[in-house]
Design brief:
CATH architecture of the largest domain: 2-Layer Sandwich
Largest sheet: 7 strands, mixed
Order of helices and strands: EEEEEEEEHEHHHHEHHEEEEEEHEEEEH
Number of domains: 3
Number of strands: 20
Bound molecules: oxidized coenzyme A
Structural class: alpha+beta
Shape: elongated
Strand content: 15-25%
CATH class of the largest domain: Alpha Beta
Length: about 450
C-alpha cells in the first residue's frame, strides 16, 4: 500500500471549532481531487473539506459532531498511482514557513496574506468544496504542510453554489441545479426561498419540466440504490396497484404544483351539538363532521370561485358545478371517490352517500367514473387524530382541505376563557392560481360557516 497522506481542514478564515455535519465518503471510497470528504457548517457558512488529490479513503478521522479548525486531520488517503501528487512530504516546512521548499508541490505556496474582509463576510464567501487547497494534505509523518490562502472566488469561480446542506438537499429533491440560481442572501448565498422561486418560475404557465440539459427545470438525479440487507434483515413486498397509481399521481402533483398550506381552526361547538341531535334522530345514518365540511366547502367554493377551478395552460377554467372528492383510506391504499352535485344535497343525503362510497371503496368496487370530475377534495383524518397536516392537491384541482381531529380548547371570549370544540383545518392550494390572502379568506369563511351553520342559508 502506498504511503497514506493526511487530508486536513484548509484555511477557513476566522472560523474555529466548526462542527462536522455530514460525512460525504466512507473508508474504501475512491475520491477525486477536490471531491468533498466532509461538510462543516459554522453559523455563517457551510464548506466541504475537499480531497487534496485522487486516491482511496483509508480512514476517516472524524465523525458527525466533531469540531474542527484549520489543520485538523479529516482522513487518511492512499494516493492512487499516477494520480496528482499529494503536496507535502514528510518533514515539509512547518506551518509558519513563509516560502515554499524548492521541490514543493503546489501545496507549498507562500502563506496567504491575512484576509482583511470582516470575518462574517470572509466566512460567508466560503463555498462548499471550494477549499481545495493542497495544504489540506500532509504526510502521516510528523509535520504538515503550510496552509495556503483560501480564496473561494479565485479557486472555484462560479463552480460551487453557496448554499447550506439543507438547501442543497431540498434542491436535489426537486432536481434543481443550484448552479443556475443566484442567491439573494448575504454574500450570494442561495436560500430555500430562492429554490422555490426558481421552481415556481420554471412551472409558471404549466411549463413542462425539461428532459435534460441546459436551462432551469426538474432534472431529477437517480434514486439512491441501497442494499438494505447489508444493514439488517429485510422483506420486500410489492406495492398494490392503487399505491402505484396514487403514488405516481401524488409525486407528479407534489413536484409540479407549488403548494402552500393555510391552517385555521373552526369553532364547531354548536355544530357538534346539532350533529349529535341529527344522529339521535337518524339512527340508521352515520352523520360525521365530514358532511358538514362538504356543505361548508361548497359554500366557500361559491364565494371564492377561483378555488373551484383548474389551470389549463394560461387559462383558468371555472366550474359551475360542485363535485367534491373525498379521500378514503382503504387497506390497498388511498382512493378519492367523488360526491356529485354536493350543492344540491342535504346533510342526511350526503351522509348516506358518504357511507356508500366509503364502503364501495373499501370493498374495491369503485369504478373509474366514481373517481372522475372532482372540483375540490377533502381529506379527513379527524376520525384518527392529529392537529394539522399538509394534504397534496389532487390535480387538476387547485386546492384540497385537510381536516384533523377536533379538540376542546380554552378560547378567550373577551372576558373569560371558554371551553370550545375547535376543528383544525389545513388548506393546501396551488400558489399559481391562489394567493395567500385568498386562502386565508377561504379558511376564515369556512370557519365562519362551520361556526354558525345559518350562514349556509345565505
Ligand atoms: N374530529 C373528531 N372526531 C371526528 C372527526 C373530527 N374531525 N371526524 C370524524 N370523527 C369521528 C366520527 O364522528 C366518528 O365517530 P363515531 O365513531 O363516534 O361516530 C369517528 O371519528 C370515525 O369517523 P370515520 O372516519 O369513520 O368517518 P368520517 O366521515 O369522518 O370519514 C372517511 C370517512 C371515508 C373519509 C374516512 O373513513 C377515511 O378514510 N379517512 C382517511 C382519509 C385519508 O386517508 N386521508 C389522507 C389522505 S393523504 O394521505
Amino acid at each position: 500500500m502506498a504511503e497514506l497522506k493526511e487530508a486536513r481542514v484548509p484555511d477557513i478564515g476566522d472560523d474555529k471549532d466548526v462542527p462536522v455535519i455530514e460525512l460525504l465518503v466512507q473508508p474504501g471510497d475512491t475520491v477525486k481531487k477536490d471531491q468533498g470528504l466532509v461538510t462543516l457548517e459554522s453559523d455563517k457558512a457551510t464548506m466541504e473539506v475537499p480531497a487534496p488529490f485522487d486516491g482511496i479513503v483509508r480512514e476517516l478521522k472524524v465523525k458527525i459532531g466533531d469540531e474542527l479548525s484549520e489543520g485538523s486531520v479529516v482522513a487518511l488517503i492512499e494516493p492512487v498511482a499516477g494520480a496528482a501528487a499529494p503536496a507535502a512530504k514528510a518533514g515539509a516546512a512547518p506551518a509558519s514557513a513563509a516560502k515554499p521548499a524548492p521541490d514543493a508541490a503546489p501545496a507549498e505556496k507562500p502563506l496567504p496574506a491575512p484576509d482583511t474582509r470582516p470575518a462574517a463576510e470572509a466566512a460567508a464567501k466560503t463555498p462548499m468544496a471550494a477549499a481545495h487547497s493542497d495544504a489540506a494534505v500532509a504526510a502521516v509523518a510528523p509535520t504538515r504542510s503550510p496552509p495556503v490562502a483560501f480564496d473561494a472566488d479565485a479557486l472555484m469561480p462560479g463552480k460551487v453554489p453557496h448554499a447550506s446542506p439543507a438547501v442543497r438537499l431540498f434542491a436535489r429533491e426537486l432536481g434543481v441545479d443550484l448552479g443556475q440560481l443566484s442567491g439573494t442572501a448575504r454574500a450570494g448565498r442561495i436560500t430555500k426561498e430562492d429554490v422555490q422561486a426558481f421552481v415556481k418560475a420554471a412551472l409558471a404557465g404549466g411549463a413542462a419540466p425539461r428532459a435534460s440539459g441546459g436551462g432551469g427545470g426538474l432534472d431529477l438525479i437517480p434514486w439512491p440504490k441501497v442494499d438494505f440487507a447489508k444493514f439488517g434483515p429485510v422483506e420486500s413486498r410489492p406495492l398494490t396497484r392503487i399505491q402505484k397509481l396514487s403514488g405516481a399521481n401524488l409525486a407528479r402533483n407534489w413536484a409540479m404544483i407549488p403548494h402552500v398550506t393555510q391552517h385555521d381552526d373552526a369553532d364547531i361547538t354548536e355544530m357538534e351539538a346539532f350533529r349529535k341531535k341529527l344522529g339521535e334522530e337518524n339512527k340508521d345514518t352515520k352523520v360525521t363532521p365530514l358532511v358538514f365540511l362538504i356543505k361548508a366547502a361548497v359554500a366557500a367554493l361559491k364565494k371564492f370561485p377561483n378555488f373551484n377551478a383548474s389551470l389549463e395552460g394560461e387559462n383558468l377554467v371555472l366550474k359551475q358545478y360542485f363535485h367534491i372528492g373525498i379521500a378514503v383510506d382503504t387497506p390497498d391504499g388511498l382512493v378519492v371517490p367523488v360526491i356529485r352535485d354536493a350543492d344540491r344535497k342535504g346533510l342526511l343525503e350526503l351522509a348516506k352517500e358518504l357511507g356508500e362510497i366509503s364502503a364501495k371503496a373499501r370493498e374495491k368496487k369503485l369504478t373509474s367514473a366514481d373517481m372522475q370530475g372532482g372540483c375540490f377534495s377533502i381529506s379527513s383524518l379527524g376520525g384518527i387524530g392529529g392537529t394539522a397536516f399538509t394534504p397534496i392537491i389532487n390535480a387538476p384541482e387547485v386546492a384540497i382541505l385537510g381536516v384533523s381531529r377536533s379538540a376542546t380548547k380554552p378560547v378567550w371570549n373577551g372576558k373569560d376563557f371558554e371551553p370550545r370544540l375547535m376543528l383544525p383545518l389545513s388548506l393546501s392550494y396551488d400558489h399559481r392560481v391562489i394567493d395567500g390572502a385568498a386562502a386565508a379568506r377561504f379558511t376564515a369563511y369556512l370557519a365562519q360557516v362551520l361556526g354558525d351553520l345559518r350562514r349556509l342559508l345565505l
